[in-house]
Amino acid sequence: MSHTLKCFWFPKPLVRNVSTFSEYKNLRIADILATRPLGTQTSIKGWVKTVRKMKDNLFIDVNDGSCPDKFQIVLPKALKPDYLSFGASVEVIGKTTENVNGQLELRADELKILGPCIHSEGFPFAGKVSHPPEYIRKFLHLRSRTSAFSSILRIRSAASRSIHKYLSNEGYLNIHTPILTANDCEGAGEVFLARPENDTHLKDMMKHGLSCEEAYFDKKVFLTVSGQLHLEAMARGLGSVYTFGPTFRAENSRSRLHLSEFYMLEAEAAFMDNLDDLLKMMEKFIKNITTEVANECERDIRMLQDEEAKLHVNNLIKKPFQVLNFNEACSIINQHFEGPKVTEGLNKEQELFLVNYFGKVPVFVVEWPQALKPFYMKLMPDTLKVAAVDLLVPHVGELCGGSVRENDYILLEQKLKRIGQSEGLDWYLELRKFGNIPTSGFGMGFERFLQLLLGIANIKDTIPFPRWPHNCIL
Amino acid sequence: MSHTLKCFWFPKPLVRNVSTFSEYKNLRIADILATRPLGTQTSIKGWVKTVRKMKDNLFIDVNDGSCPDKFQIVLPKALKPDYLSFGASVEVIGKTTENVNGQLELRADELKILGPCIHSEGFPFAGKVSHPPEYIRKFLHLRSRTSAFSSILRIRSAASRSIHKYLSNEGYLNIHTPILTANDCEGAGEVFLARPENDTHLKDMMKHGLSCEEAYFDKKVFLTVSGQLHLEAMARGLGSVYTFGPTFRAENSRSRLHLSEFYMLEAEAAFMDNLDDLLKMMEKFIKNITTEVANECERDIRMLQDEEAKLHVNNLIKKPFQVLNFNEACSIINQHFEGPKVTEGLNKEQELFLVNYFGKVPVFVVEWPQALKPFYMKLMPDTLKVAAVDLLVPHVGELCGGSVRENDYILLEQKLKRIGQSEGLDWYLELRKFGNIPTSGFGMGFERFLQLLLGIANIKDTIPFPRWPHNCIL
């Protein structure tokens, strides 16, 4: 056993199984702060954030991940154990009291080190230091220990819950659309292929004339870029449905807005046949989940949000979203934007310009040229426009895309033939054959929503384990 | 335009934009049955399940996917539109009334066909016919239209919600662990490799000396077999955490209990250092979610559950789970089971025998030989056993696996070296270095839970789009 290791090998004498510990009820700091129990004998478990020495006592701030707040422990100096330092995990027992400032604190009877944190061995974080996000991102396995990132993850968890809750209350069923799929939906994004790692195994399974990629499923199989087409199938028996899960793009993009693996919320409203209703539904959804998360995570958000992000969220919650059609959007950009004029779709700069032009209020851009949008969007009568919408927001540009779906069998069949996709999507076409209904829906990039909500510059800091080109750590 | 297509091309004359339709509020059948509004003018949208002709009226049962119930429409014969048949989608307007049996029904003023269902064109389902699951499974894109499968999907949605709700109330944070990962966790299951489909793209990205599979991320990347190791990292800053999402196995198994893509719930309890607490937590979790789903989906479950499944669920909810250690389990099997004796771990037959032996009550088998279990399980003092648990249940055998995690730095390092995994898992080992804590956790196969709850024979009928060897439809 090397010398170095000795520090981490837990020193036996410290592990005292003092029976008093088990007699105390363990409480989470979030619960203590919510219920403010006075004079309660309790145990708290968490990580040391600061240690301040006073005359007779040590004042130790502990956080346990349940909330952004640190809880103050008052420990008589005589009871200080070895290895008490920033980053150590501890169990403390004592009685809750109110200090002169009216704050709840724990008068400790004992403090036990669960795990020391020997900084000289390479712990990347230091107490009272605010590390930049790029630095923290290098230590994915440890970054839940930082205040900022743990706040983000609590908000992420609350926002997920809020999405499920809102859609469920609105009567949408949660559908787990597949990750592995033979369809690549939009034919637009770059996709990942999946095949078994085991080669001998593959050879056993492979049917004559098939490639390695086709061996397991008898066809090439990709990681999903969208669950929409599958949702449309489900909506034709179950009514309105949604899916919320991981989505993949194999693009070589390292932008601050792109990940190779990200989360998308996709909702499909049964019997909805027009853009007006879709816009109403999208705006209501976004206002609702934002309001709920803002209320529920108020303390975490306060730690992260700057004035700019606060303004964005305030506008989003309180102001009606702007609506304009693609032609209007283009002419505003071409008249007032000092950057490049519109040639095809809108680029990120143009998107952000539009939102700023309208006072940083989210903007629905509707009625897009057919050529700019995927095959499944509904052609508007007597035009070459489709009933599509992009929702543009401050800070990130496009947050959602949606459309009324083409439910006319003939038009859809012609379109699929024209783009050479009729073969793999025969099932999708067939949905329009038997008891067909109109549907409309949208997708929202979940990480971009978090970027908007918190003013996070880089999308890599919104997800626990970010994946982007040349980076798949852990 | 071919003759065949004409039937599906919606016949123009039927699309009457009768203004009265928009004046009626659309209600879901679930909401009507819950609130029983009498004399309310409403519109209902859904699919025709049966049409019965009486003297003056047609009696039409409609289902809209919001619940298992069909709602009866009474339509004067004179108002019958063309194409009214089983499977057609319709919108009906009228007034809710109570019939002589006390059932709510809709006295229709008008019925509009939204989409006809021309059976001669190949609609695979027929009215009043109960199709076997193997037959229904061939039509993944249409199977949400069958009563049985739509019930399963509503229960699946409710069970997901219940899992999120329960764990959230217990203070667990929802973590989205990655699908793409460079770790394959257990080193046990067969894994899928992922790489971009686009070859030119790949060549641009590939660094010198790397293979095609390594081009995008600079290393081989797999689809996750478990989020546990990632959860352990998160638990060391956030406290207790869970993940609930898709998981992958590239095995060549077509059993009634295996899928290539399935859902797993994995929970990791921070500061939990012993099997007793883990068993309590698992039992409480399973009893709670089962009870909630059983109550919430009572009508859907009644449609599906046979007497056997009802007994299993009743035992699960009401009886305390059995606990025995691996040695005891082996000796019971070796003494009383007429099938094969235990040689290594337990096989499916032996698992099911044990559960039957204890009166079809779930059985915790604890304290397993180290050699049979993954590296991360905690070695019990002075034994070659690990603090592991398998939860065995009727119908499916193993439903959950869990353990106290090895948090001793030295023991874990030795183990990783011994099995030759120390390199890729240095980050995992390092979690034990800085402010280490004990954690315990378990994983539950979500589809197996649904099989148990509903007595579903084949796991392929519990998930919207099943994937198994040689099968990735849609």
From TrEMBL, chains A, B:
Example of a GO biological process term: asparaginyl-tRNA aminoacylation
Its EC number(s): 6.1.1.22
GO cellular component terms given for this protein: mitochondrion
UniProt entry keywords in alphabetical sequence: Aminoacyl-tRNA synthetase, ATP-binding, Ligase, Nucleotide-binding, Protein biosynthesis
Pfam families linked to this entry: tRNA-synt_2, tRNA_anti-codon
One Gene Ontology molecular-function label: asparagine-tRNA ligase activity
Domain Aminoacyl-transfer RNA synthetases class-II family profile: 153-464
Enzyme class of the recorded protein, top EC level: ligase
InterPro entries: Aa-tRNA-synt_II, aa-tRNA-synth_II, aa-tRNA-synth_II/BPL/LPL, Asn-tRNA-ligase, Asp/Asn-tRNA-synth_IIb, NA-bd_OB-fold, NA-bd_OB_tRNA
Family, similarity comment: Belongs to the class-II aminoacyl-tRNA synthetase family.
Entry-linked NCBIfam families: asnS (TIGR00457), PRK03932.1 (NF003037)
Protein name: asparagine--tRNA ligase
Organism: Gryllus longicercus
